[in-house]
C-alpha cells in the first residue's frame, strides 16, 4: 500500500488525506522567531517546497524521524533552563520507551512498520506542541522584560518613589503579589514555576503523577488538548486534581521574602 504525503513549506511536517491530529500543525509559523540552532555536522535535510513523498510505511518512517530530528534540534535551544531541560528529557524518555515496547510486542511482524509510523507521527505532534509552549513562553518573557523596563524607568523618574513593602502578616495583598511577580519570576526556583506557562504558581494543584501545575493552565489543557497529564502522559481528569498547599505556602513565603 502506497501513501502520499505533501511536505508543508519550510517545515517538513506530513500532511495526508486521512485524518490527522491538527495540533501538530500549530507550530508551523513559529520558527521565524528564533535563531536556528543546527550544528554543521547534524543538520537535517529539508524537502523543497511542495515536494510529494511517496512510499510504503517502511520507506516513510525515516522521513518522519527526520522531521522529529528537526524539531528536537529546535527544542535544544531551550535546554539552558533546567526546568525545560527536564521536560524535554522526560518526553524523550517516554518516546523511547514507547518505541521499545512496540518493538517487543510487534517486532518482526507486518504490523510493526505500520504501528511505528503512526507512533512516530504522534510523537512528532507532541514535540511540536511542546515547542509551541516554549515559543509562547519566549514571547511572554519578552513582554515581561519590556514591562519591567518600563516600570523601572517610571520608578527612577519619580522623585523619592519606592515600592511599598509587603505586609508583615501571614498573607500578602493581591496588589503586592502583582508587584512582586514581575520582579522575581525570572529568579524563582524551578519548582515554584508552572511547567506549562513557566510563571510563578498562584493556585497550584498536583496530579496523580506527582506533577504540580497552575490550576487554570492544567484545566485549559484538559479542556482543549485532552484528558491526560501533558508531561507524564497519564490519563487525567478534573476530579483528580488536588490543591498543593505546601507549594502554595512556599510561593507566598518566597514572594514575601523577595518583596523586602
TrEMBL record:
Q: Which GO terms describe its cellular component?
A: cytoplasm
Question: What CDD domains does the database record attribute to this sequence?
Answer: RING-Ubox_CHIP (cd16654)
Q: What EC number(s) does its UniProt record assign? A: 2.3.2.27
Presence of the UniProt keyword Electron transport in the record = no
List the catalysed reactions.
S-ubiquitinyl-[E2 ubiquitin-conjugating enzyme]-L-cysteine + [acceptor protein]-L-lysine = [E2 ubiquitin-conjugating enzyme]-L-cysteine + N(6)-ubiquitinyl-[acceptor protein]-L-lysine
Q: Which InterPro entries match?
A: CHIP_RING-Ubox, Ubox_domain, Znf_RING/FYVE/PHD
Question: Record's Pfam families?
Answer: U-box
U-box domain location is 187-260
| Keywords from the UniProt entry | Repeat, TPR repeat, Transferase, Ubl conjugation pathway
A molecular function (GO) term: protein-folding chaperone binding
Q: Name one GO biological process term.
A: positive regulation of proteolysis
Protein name (record): RING-type E3 ubiquitin transferase
Organism equals Candida orthopsilosis (strain 90-125) (Yeast)
